[in-house]
Design brief:
ASHA1/2-like_C, globular, 4 helices, seven-stranded antiparallel beta sheet, 27% helix, alpha+beta, 7 strands, START-like_dom_sf, single chain, 165 residues, Alpha-D-Glucose-1,6-Bisphosphate, Chain A, domain 4, SRPBCC family protein
Length: 165
């Protein structure tokens, strides 16, 4: 099993909004080339997301099915990418002050990944998932900052009043 954690400087509701929008999946999931179809009731249990993954001309279609959904707290997916089998992806969101501590666990369920399970495979998956969470965090923070009210800025060079003696 590969496990990643990331503190995201956005609220669990804001992060959940990104996780639950199937059409935005390709923005933060490393290796996604295109979202082919997203069930409109995602992230409800049973909802499917069909994506094309790969690098360059080497692609395959992947189906991601929601297995567990606890809004703003937990999302578990089963990613099926034949002929490579399937994996369980468990995402947990924990409020951390006004931010979000996100934990992502990845575990092979079926296929060759179950036989290659161990340090080398888990390390590679953890590196990929770390890149993915970094992208998710950047998007969440950018959108959080864009939704904040603008503060007035000082005019005149930023120095305080001068005193004369």
């Amino acid at each position: 099993m590969a496990r990643n954690r990331c503190l995201i400087l956005s609220s669990p509701s804001e992060v959940w909004g990104l996780l639950s929008d199937g059409h935005r999946y390709g923005e933060w999931v490393t290796g996604t080339q295109q979202v082919l179809a997203a069930d409109p009731h995602r992230p409800d249990v049973g909802a499917r997301l069909k994506v094309r993954v790969g690098a360059g001309p080497l692609t395959l279609d992947d189906t991601c099915v929601v297995r567990v959904c606890e809004p703003r707290h937990r999302l578990e997916l089963e990613a099926k990418a034949d002929p490579f089998g399937a994996a369980r992806i468990a995402i947990k969101l924990v409020p951390w002050d006004e931010h979000t501590l996100l934990t992502l666990d990845w575990h092979a369920l079926r296929g060759p990944g179950t036989r290659m399970h161990g340090l080398p495979v888990d390390y590679l998956v953890a590196v990929r998932n770390g890149m993915m969470l970094t992208k998710l965090a950047r998007i969440a923070v950018r959108e959080h900052e864009a939704n904040q009210p603008q503060r007035p800025t000082a005019v005149g060079g930023g120095r305080g009043p001068r005193s004369s003696q």
